[in-house]
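Dock PBG; give full complex structure.
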Amino acid sequence: MNKFPEARLRRLRKTPALRNMIRETKLEITDFVYPIFVAQGDQVYDPIAPMPGIFQLSLDKLRQEILEISALGIPAVLLFGLPGKKDDEGSEAYKQDGIVQQAIKVVKDTASELIVITDVCLCEYTDHGHCGIVSGFNVDNDKTLSLLAMTAESHAAAGADMVAPSAMMDGQVSAIRNSLDINGFIDVPIMSYSAKYASAFYGPFRVAADSTPQYGDRKAYQMDVSNSNEAIREIKSDIDEGADIVMVKPALAYLDMIALAKRMFNHPVAAYNVSGEYSMVKAASQNGWIDEERVIQEILIGIKRAGADIIITYHAKEVARLLEP
Ligand code: PBG
């Protein structure tokens, strides 16, 4: 009976009302996290060339930005910092009055309900641009752990609601969990960049965050783009170390990993719709080659349909406007 011609799948596609009724995936503004790049200085509002609509902004401009984000109903921001000076140990990353630590306070003062998530990594703070301490030609995993833990703890002390380690060092989640717990931040969750691939899609971000490695690449710590089983092991080990949310990054070329992560683990899954994914949409749109609004929605629905509970995206403000009743 369930065969053509009795079965006709087109019946439920006939009108907008029917399509709305059976729609399986709907975007909600509460799905989204908006990344922000905070820079030193005053009155800084510098456009990031490959990411139209995204800016580096100073603390005085941040307040205005946060009011807008909060009014749009976006529930969370992810903070990245551009420090005034860099050194080989990324010491501005874990300074009490570092740029992110100050930004956290500004956000919390401006819109206390906004969830403040911080990226925990050293690449924006090291002069060599790698995500940890470099010894010889290697990023030293174990020496880096304590610095990541100090960074996360300093963010929590400044009022961060959640920390998001992205350095891809083995053991970073447990190092951070321990340090948060012994310092009294038992309630601060960790969203771990668990399956973070060594991706060319981060190119525009590295312009935005001034974090391009000065030599070499990140392939000795970020994952090989070809691997799926290994991503599952990464996610599993982060969960075992205490990650509250696990992340797949980038999103679009890794929808299979988002789906697998969601199916295999009883854990919230975040997906990072990264800078290069954003830039491609903007470039095509500026050329008049695509319908930008529809493409943005289609991409984000795809990421959610794959299984993402949380989507980090530079499109968050645009989506908020599209979703407004
Ligand atoms: C820091 C970090 C990166 C991104 C998020 N956190 C860059 C990298 O690993 O090179 C990329 C985000 C994006 O491309 O939007 N390690």
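Observed: The pocket of PBG is lined by residues 119, 121, 123, 131, 166, 202, 205-206, 274-275 (CB under 6 Å).
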